[in-house]
Write a structure and sequence with these properties.
The chain starts with a helix and ends with a helix. It has 530 residues and is mostly helical. The longest helix is centred in the C-terminal third of the chain and has 51 residues. It folds into two domains: 427 residues, no CATH class; 71 residues, no CATH class. It is built from 17 helices and two strands. It is elongated and about 115 Å long. It has a two-stranded antiparallel sheet.
Length: 530
């Protein structure tokens, strides 16, 4: 007992020390951002306000890294295609690269055009509102991360801008039709992600895992799946990942993606064939063929996320910087290198220090993921973004990825239902066969005159009646064919429904809570400044 107490105490001390170091690292980063802003912008008006805004921008970036990046690498970690450390290293490198290389040099000051800046009375009110929006969104993200709920960082900042805008200029400042389109993404994103991920996983099961010779099936199917993945990811990267460097339309992006897919297929097919020669005809070995594609998926998703979502951290900061420098309210603002670095470094630090919690949630605590399931989630993320971009639908990458994981979980529930139905059918068939046999033996017994044969028949009849009782109570002797069919379907916990409820609840309150926080912060800032 005493030894157990010592171990628990040691574990708690180690955990507390880790929390202390992480908090210290976060505070040190924000202080460095504050100090650098003062030194880099000395002599400009409102430099103190800009430095505080930069510090809050760094805080927002860390929260994006802690919460949102988990969706890109969580499935790969949950499936054991990547270790937690490897996933963090890949995400840090590619998130920062995406932000710095493809993050662009101009950003919209009003996220998604949800408020009309012309209705803001003066530049100071605009600066206060943007700071409140940034801080409100960051606080909600921090809370969601602490609760273990992956939420949309885009929706967090949208809620912050809306709340601060209403607080500063009234309800009429909000573009409600645009807000309606954003709200629709709460349903569209996860539904599309779930459907596409489930379809891909079902295809993999039917074409590979339900075959007698899985290895031979994998040699034919896996190269095609990797080619499809190449098409999706190259198209996605062309349209979204580098859109701030070069504008590429859907047709051109699909052309580039298709050419890349054909080349990858020709290269990967002989490699898969050779790799298969070293594998056994087991599910685990077949799953290993998806490991390298999953690693590439995690890297490309991280790059595209860094390029696109860094604006959530630095957009309001760039707007504040532009307003202070120019004295005007602009719909577009240039991004100084130092502002971009605040966003890129903040995301990387937030991921490294606080990301593991959400990575484990996404990868392990919603449904059990293997490489094939995680691959289905990854490709659904790319395909849904392409479809949404083509249709002009506002979607959340977080909602797509989590929706994909839920889709995999629901497919597993559906397959498990098939398992139960199959068991029920087998049971009914066994019961009918036994009743028919008992009825046959009853008739046969009456016609047998030889006492020895009669006793044998009575014994066999008793055995069949006992077997019928066993089957009715759930004890079934499956035939080899029945065992083989049932082995294809697992019986495990397929989807953690409490996690589903928690995540959906967090999604629904993201905009209103971040909006309320931003409104309260706006009035606080206004009170201080006036």
């Amino acid at each position: 007992m005493e030894e157990t107490v010592k171990k628990l105490s040691k574990k708690a001390t180690k955990h507390s020390r880790g929390d202390f170091y992480r908090l210290g690292g976060a505070i040190f980063f924000m202080i460095m951002v504050l100090a650098y802003t003062f030194l880099n912008n000395g002599g400009i008006p409102q430099v103190t306000f800009l430095a505080v805004a930069a510090m809050i921008g760094g805080y927002m970036a860390m929260n994006i890294g802690a919460n949102d990046v988990a969706n890109n690498v969580g499935p790969a970690v949950g499936s054991k295609a990547l270790t937690l450390g490897g996933a963090i290293a890949i995400a840090v490198i590619f998130e920062a690269s995406g932000a710095l290389i493809a993050g662009g040099d101009v950003v919209g000051t009003i996220k998604k055009g949800i408020i009309d800046p012309a209705l803001i009375p003066d530049v100071n009110v605009f600066i206060w509102a943007m700071l409140a929006a940034l801080f409100g969104g960051a606080l909600w993200l921090n809370l969601a991360t602490a609760l273990g709920a992956p939420v949309s960082t885009t929706h967090s900042i949208v809620g912050g801008v809306m709340g601060a805008g209403i607080a500063s200029s009234g309800w009429e400042i909000v573009n409600w039709s645009k807000m309606g389109a954003i709200a629709s993404s709460w349903v569209i994103s996860p539904m599309l992600g779930a459907i596409i991920a489930a379809l891909f996983l079902y295809t993999i099961k039917r074409t590979i895992f339900y075959k007698d010779d899985m290895l031979e099936a994998a040699k034919k199917v896996v190269p095609i799946l990797i080619a499809v993945m190449t098409l999706a990811f190259i198209t996605y990267l062309s349209m979204k990942g580098i859109k701030k460097i070069v504008k590429i339309d859907l047709i051109t992006a699909l052309g580039i993606g298709s050419t890349s897919a054909i080349l990858v297929y020709l290269i990967i097919k002989p490699l898969i064939s050779r790799a298969s020669n070293r594998l056994a005809n087991t599910r685990n070995d077949i799953n290993s063929l998806f490991t390298i594609p999953l690693i590439f998926a995690a890297a490309l998703l991280s790059f595209a996320h860094g390029a696109n979502d860094v604006a959530n951290a630095i957009g309001p900061l760039a707007a504040i910087n532009d307003a202070i420098m120019s004295g005007e309210i602009s719909t577009k603002a240039g991004i100084p290198l130092w502002v971009m670095l605040v966003g890129a470094v903040g995301i990387a630090l937030g991921l490294a220090m606080y990301g593991p919690k959400l990575i484990k949630t996404v990868g392990q605590e919603i449904t059990e993921l293997d490489q094939a399931r995680a691959w289905s989630v990854a490709i659904s993320s790319a395909i849904v973004v392409i479809i949404a971009s083509a249709l002009g639908l506002p979607v959340s990458s977080t909602h797509i990825a989590i929706g994909g994981i839920f889709g995999v979980g629901f497919l597993r529930i559906y397959i498990h239902t098939q398992y139960e139905d199959k068991i029920s059918g087998i049971k009914k068939a066994h019961i009918k066969a036994l009743k028919d046999k008992i009825e046959e033996l009853e008739k046969e017994k009456e016609t047998i005159e030889n006492e020895v044969e009669r006793l044998k028949t009575i014994q066999l009849l008793d055995d069949k009646k006992q077997e019928l009782k066993d089957v009715e109570s759930g004890k079934i002797d499956f035939t080899n064919k029945e065992k083989k069919d049932l082995d294809k379907i697992g019986k495990k916990e397929h989807l953690k429904k409490d996690m589903l409820i928690k995540i959906i609840a967090a999604w629904l309150i993201t905009v209103p809570v971040s909006g309320l926080l931003a409104a309260m912060l706006y009035f606080t800032i206004r009170g201080i400044m006036l």
